[in-house]
Amino acid sequence: MQNVRKRINVRGALTQNVNQRLLSSPCLDYFEPINENFTLFKIRKPNLYLDKPIYIGFCVLELSKLRMYDLYYTNFKKYYKNSCDLLYMDTDSLYLHIHTKDVYADLKRHFSGVLDLSNFPTDHVLFDNTNRGKLGTLKNEICKPIREFVGIKPKMYSVLYGENDCKQAAKGVRSSTLTKITHMNYKTVLTEESKLRHMQYSILSKKHVLETVVQNKTSLSAYYDKKFVCEDGIHTLSYGNKDI
Asked: Can you give the pLDDT at residue 19?
């Protein structure tokens, strides 16, 4: 979602004449002297073309959430009932814990209509090109048996799959720092309701001068205030749930 009202022009001035002209502009929002010979100016746009309605972007996001809930409750939860638990949900992904004899057979027999199975190996029992690229279908990103999943909160999880493969996510943490975090770290933070910190190095520009910034950043944390956390510290309920 873009708010075109927040768009600005940034201009630089090297001479006194340009400085005076930009300072007298009725659209001037802010200026910052960089040094004796250079000044940056933030100039608001004099004309706006409101061609990106925010409410449309909001509706698209809400409809995508509705689609995800519909896929889960009218398909997987309806079929498996209490044998299916939702471990993690994002805008466009689901992690489910399913108790069944043969999940591959179930997926092919009962859920092939809502799944895009084209990314499985061609010799895999689930491979099917029927829904390749079809909008609104779910695709298996891993295509290998998942051995363990640890979900701390949105955008912060770790998945063990295959022989010894691991997929990790931690919002706001650089990829170089993420390589130092193990699956066991995720598990410890979740079960002990603790947090993990790492030194993170960045190169930032301040007034056109590059400098190295060192942060003692919280890389993993079990703290989550957008949902009600149950006594076990693992399961959560949405606020307003009857069981709270």
From this structure: 92
For the chain, the domains span 4-43, 144-243
8 A C-beta contact, residue 236 and residue 229? yes
- Per the structure block, which two tokens stand in for 54? 């925010």
Half-sphere exposure of 74 (CA within 13 A, CB side): 8
Q: Which residues of the chain have pLDDT under 70?
A: none
Give, rounded to a whole angstrom, the gap between the first and last alpha carbons of the chain.
34
Taking a C-beta distance cutoff of 8 angstroms, is the pair 115, 107 a contact?
yes
DSSP assignment string, 158-220:
EEEETTTEEEEEETT--HHHHTT--HHHHHHHHHHT-EEEEEEEEEEEETTEEEEEEEEEEEE
pLDDT in tens, 63-100: 999 999 999 999 999 999 999 999 998 888 899 999 99
Closest CA to 185 of 148, 158, 167, 163: 158
What digits encode the pLDDT tens for the residues 143-159? 889 999 999 999 999 99
